[in-house]
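Minutes, project check-in
Item: structure for the 717-residue chain
Input as provided by the requester:
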Amino acid sequence: MRNLLIVFCVIATAFASYGQSNLFVGKNFRNAYEKGTRSKEGIPGENYWQNHVKYDIHVEVVPGTKMLKGSESIVFTNNSPDVLNQIVVRLYQNAFKKGAAHNIPLPLDGTTNGMNIKECVISGKTVNIEDSRLFHVNGTNLIIQLEEPLLPNSDLDISFKWDHQIPKSTIRQGYLDDSSFFVGGWYPQISVYDDVYGWDQLQYTFDSEFYNNLADFNVNITVPDNFLVWSTGTMENAKEVFSDKIYERYTKAKRSDKVVHVVTKNDLKDLKMKSTTWTFKADDISDFAFAMSDHFLWDAASQQINDRRVLINNAYYKDKRRVLGDGVEVLQTAMKFFSEEMPGVPYPYPTYNSFLGLSDMGGMEFPMITNVGSINTGVLMHELFHSYLPMYVRTNERRFAWMDEGFAFFTNTMLMKERFPRVFRMRGGASIASRFKKEMNNVSEDIKVCAGFSKGYLNYDVNVSNSTDYQMYLLPGYVNHLLFEYLGDAKFKGIYKKYVETWAKKSPTPYDYFFFFEKMSGEDLSWIWKPWFFEMGSADLAVESFENGVLKVNKVGSRPLGVSITVNYTDQSELKPYYTSHNISVWKDDRNVLDELIPNADKVLSIVVNDDMPDFDVWNNYYPSVEDRYKKVSDLSSITGEYMVKMLRANATITIKDGKLFFEVKSRRVAQFLIPLDEDHFVTVDNFAKITLDKKDGKIVGLIITAFGRDIKAVRQ
């Protein structure tokens, strides 16, 4: 606490020297500043507003036909200063309709007939849903013309009756088998009308996620006998639904630090549920989803967050419970880290549910519940983090998905490093930056994340071919890492925490993110924002020379990044490898050259720059150069061939590509060029493994692969 107070004192004194960043700002955003709904300090303006919705929903799921039948009553509150002549409603299920436009292909058996609206009533009057002038369905949007305009600070009552078939397990939702479902995007939902874009009428085509109003939900879910339900919100009628035995375990889990097996395999034989209608409530959240099954198991425990306990539920199929230990325990660890360390904001909801179900995707988040397909620690924690962004801080994922995915990727990496170091080391090397290295270096185009500003929106794949992960996760995640390194641990954490608190339950734009960090840090950070988010370019350093003990490194790419320097010496018995690093501040104020004095220069064998950083062109990072090093390897062809790695039960191969040795273990997805250290020693280009030729009587009989801190032998075949 004392450190954070010091940080905020420093931040406060920096305000006087703060100057507005010189960034291009689009018309929609300029209008928001002029109207006072947003501030160029990155905080909500004096006139900031957002609309609110109340949903009262009754829904029934019929597993045999995969049909969902629902009715809902809605109260929409127009908090805007505008008179609204129409209402836009989202019908997400229409994305699964035969012939619907979508940017991610569906299997032939993954299509449905879409959402069937059977009745619509507005302000007590039944709407003629056959009149396309009043009731117009356009893809995943329904546009309703109002007979009477909705005035500012007024409410509108709307009700719907509808049904739709739940699609086969596919994008973010669906059924896993005949009696296991994850149900999202399932109800007619009032679209967002905001201060930047007005009505959100973008089509849902699977390549983006969601942007929703703040809303209150009261939901009654009716399922067949012996079905269990996990859902957004708190369960209001547990005693009326559960058998006495299960209710006792459920209530015990609410108080327990240890995992309670709420429903076991034996229980599934005869659950003896008292009721088949489950009631859930939640206020001030952005969406509602639920899962159900008659053969999933259920573990639960609670996590102490300040003066309250959060119930964590983990539903899973048979043997999928254990994920580096228990999934509930992983989630407890992550929730504690997010609440106390980064972003340092207490988990904001009373429950959290992880449904380990759909297997053809990584995961998908909704408030208080996530659908996890890839059963691993990283995915579990990544989806939990989304409780903060975009759920608590309601970023517009339909236009700016990178805003939450970038923070999720960065924060999850920090969590892995701090709480799961074994897994973190296995995944990627010496520093956080190395996790971004491989994917960023494999991108064929030097792209900009904010390219979509000119179009007014940014989704997962704008102007990029096969670079989704790079653009939405890795690049913004790495920029957050650069900020963390540049601002320092305490200052960055203080600003990050304040950003989440300031924009909690509100919707920041990218400019709010940029300007907030500038205001709180007291610095113009456009020298970071511009090259990384607004301009085409690459992050690339190059070794120019090493003379008289001075290593000269040039910033040949337009994007600033950290610098790491590793030096190996001729006499390693006395001189151990030397390592030093700098954060991006070395490139501030348009500097493009770094002169580094290397100790014991007369005994330098080799130098490599940024072997643990996402440097775009790795081949210019070496002294002596890669070409000069290969000249000292007399016979490359004598090294090529196949090697049996008994410990891994796999074959490794070394081939020649582009005049360089290429090391590959296909079964382990290892594929790296080798850089010579000398005639007999090589290192993979990602610096992950060292390869030593094992010789007998001058002939190569095998390899010694040094990785994970151990030597692994490979025998030549």
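Outcome recorded: The CA atoms of residues 17 and 510 lie 23 Å apart.
No further action items on this chain.
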